[in-house]
Amino acid sequence: MEQFLQQIASGLANGAIYACVALALVMIYVSTDHINFAQGEMAMFSTYLSWQLMSWGMSFWVAFIVAVAFSFVLGVIIERVILRPLHNAPVLSIVVVFIGLLAICNSVAGAIWSYLIKEYPSPFPKSSFGIAGVIGPHQLGVVLVTLVVLGLLFVFFRYTPLGLAMRAAAQNPQMARLVGVRVDWMLALGWGLAAAVGAVAGIMVAHIVYLDPNMMGGILLYAFASALVGGIGNPGGAVLGGFIVGVLENMVAFAGNQVEKATGVYIIGNGEKLTVALIIVIFVLTVKPAGLFGRVVVKRV
Amino acid sequence: MAALLEVKGLKAFYGQTQSLYDVGFDIPAGGITTLLGANGAGKTTTLRAICNMVRTEGVVRFDGKDLGGMATEEIVRLRIAHVPEGRGTFTTLTVDENLRIAAYTRRDKAGVQADLDRVFSYFPRLKERVQQQAGTLSGGEQQMLAIARALMLNPRLMLLDEPSFGLAPLIVVEIFRIMRRINEEDKVSMLLVEQNAALALDLADNAYVLETGRVVMSGPAAVIKNDENVRKSYLGY
Lengths: 301, 237
Description:
The structure holds 2 protein chains of 2 kinds.
Chain A: H1 2-32, H2 39-55, H3 60-83, H4 91-113, H5 137-159, H6 161-171, H7 173-178, H8 183-209, H9 217-230, H10 235-263, H11 273-287
Helix pairs in contact in A: 1-5, 1-8, 1-9, 1-10, 2-3, 2-4, 2-8, 3-8, 5-6, 5-8, 6-8, 9-10, 9-11, 10-11
Chain B: E1 3-14, E2 17-28, E3 32-37, H1 43-50, E4 55-62, E5 65-66, H2 72-76, E6 80-83, H3 95-102, H4 109-122, H5 124-128, H6 139-151, E7 157-161, H7 169-186, E8 189-193, H8 197-203, E9 206-211, E10 214-220, H9 221-226, H10 228-235
Helix pairs in contact in B: 3-6, 6-7
């Protein structure tokens, strides 16, 4: 039983990370119809940045805030400088740019900080934090931090004029211009926010997966799966999808371990988590192509 | 009367295709002007060209200010409200959010609240549906929302693209009555594009007739209404 709870808890912690990255993907998707393949590598870069700041003597949380803020600015700059000229480019060109961005982030991080795996600290106190036997201090911290970030984003989009303008620009850009919204800047802002949320995810997960230039590869896959499960155009769905995928993969491994313990037959274990999770994702999408919380969009052609 | 909007030698292009050749007209402050013409004559394009939503050449001056080269969102900030073809509803936002986003550029909170009250007095139906997703409104309600949204900008000029399109006759009458009130009580000038020429000529002071991207006739609405060609081509009797 205790093991079961632990598995749920660690699933929630992983799910929180997936939720953040999935939300970052969705934020860009709803306003541009593109999936930013470089989202994970951008987050990895931000994480290295925070590591660098800490090694220069900053405390964890100061480095966290500076790195997230810097990621925001970087996201805005990437949109303004790299993607702006491609507004009317065909989808494939943009996909190539995303892949290029991915490769650039990866190799620049490797060149600056080397490909050696580094340890990354956890900011959460080991003794007083977490619930013994159920959830570890770092896992609890990750869940709390992401919930705060997601809550802040929700309030921003739901209750502030700028958030409303960003939603309007994503939903109907031409009409948004006609009410005076500077749509181009809203897109750039969306990129900034996505980069910042991704940075939070990277910094939170680095203690678990260790710091290296390829740390976000698997996570991006999970996040993509989460976004699809939740409904790619639905931010709330993506967040929920993240938690679902996170818990699901651990439950699969847990069930496999239990079966092995009871019968001695090895069916699935930790190694197959990703595979099984993705099979379930495919199954969900076969039954509900728009995702669990997505709407089917009918397009006239 | 001084012209609020001055259009001279306006050309417009969609890619390589030219769809306006030489459009010129003046809109006097406080009046209602209508553009008539068949499908494809360039009525909608003229409205879009005024807001620089298509590639244009020629002169468009608003209150003496040249709009050439300005971005659409900056033109809107001069308080030109465009009610587009198809109503331009933000379908996933609520009615309330649709109205508030229209006042996004304004900083006078008291004025916005006053305008919100005024809009609800024109369109009580919107008040009943204020928390509803705008995409779930009926066509008539969405047209009301589109006009309400334009009013929330506190406009000096409204550009209306076929407000009667696809609506039941009774609702069209109601919407046109409210447009007249907006013009008379709030002193908002209007440029109205309409397929329903009879209705438009009743409402408007001045009329221009477009044919394949050119102005072919202009004058006071009362005169145009009695022109034999217009009667045969656009009024159908």
